[in-house]
Amino acid sequence: MARANFSILVIAILMISLPLRSQESKQKIKSIVITEDKYDMLIKKQYKESEVYYDQRGNIVEEISYKEGKVNKHFKYQYDDDDNKIREEEFGPSGKLIKVSEYKIENGLRVEKTVYDHDLKIKSRKNYVYTMY
Predict the structure, then answer these.
(1) For the residues 79-86, what does the mean pLDDT come to?
(2) What backbone torsions phi and psi does residue 51 show, to the nearest 5 degrees?
(3) Which of 14, 17, 58, 80 has its C-alpha lying 20 to 30 A from 111's C-alpha?
(4) pLDDT tens for each residue of 91-109
(5) Is the pTM of this model over 0.85?
(6) What strands, in cross-sheet order, belong to the sheet with 85-91?
(7) Contact at 8 Å (CB) between 51 and 63?
(8) Three-state secondary structure of 13-72
(9) 76-84 long-range contacts, Cβ below 8 Å, gap at least 24?
(10) How confident is the model at residue 8 (pLDDT cuts 50, 70, 90)?
(11) 8 Å CB contact between 87 and 102
(12) Which of 36, 38, 33 has its CA nearest to residue 50?
């Protein structure tokens, strides 16, 4: 009898905790900021290493990397309704646009990548041809 009561108690605890776990898994990351502490003798310096921002669907929409606390590289991304990356913008340390890459997607596969310079003049174009089984 005690063993049956114990089993029922365990099942009840598991059932109560299930909704709590499912709520926790619904939390989504909006951004991550990473800092690094560097030590030189007795002096401690803290630098921001990177920042990453996400959209509601979990796609990275912006990445910023730092070198000794100063912006080194900066990217912004756009996605289609199927979460395929369709545009990437690269910015320099001063915030000025360096280049833009646009991606054409067909049936979930990248079929073309076009790269533009800071004036949005075409620099290159790649075509992807797939062989399927």
Answers:
(1) 96
(2) -135, 140
(3) 58
(4) 999 999 999 999 999 998 9
(5) no
(6) 31-40, 43-54, 60-67, 70-79, 85-91, 97-106, 109-117, 122-127
(7) yes
(8) HHHHHHHHHHHHHCCCCCEEEEEEEEEECCEEEEEEEEEEEECCCCCEEEEEEEECCEEE
(9) 79/55, 80/105, 82/108, 83/57, 83/59, 84/108, 84/110
(10) low
(11) yes
(12) 33
| CA–CA distance, 59 with 91 (Å, rounded to integer) | 19
Neighbour count for residue 48 (Cβ, 10 Å): 16
Residue 33, pLDDT > 90, answer no
Cα separation, 130 vs 132, whole angstroms: 6
If we measure between CA atoms, which residue out of 61, 60, 38, 33 comes closest to residue 49? 33
**Type of residue numbered 61:** V
Burial group, residue 76, by CB count within 10 angstroms (0-12, 13-18, 19+)? middle
What does the block give as tokens for 13?
Answer: 């605890």
Cα separation of the two ends of the chain: 60
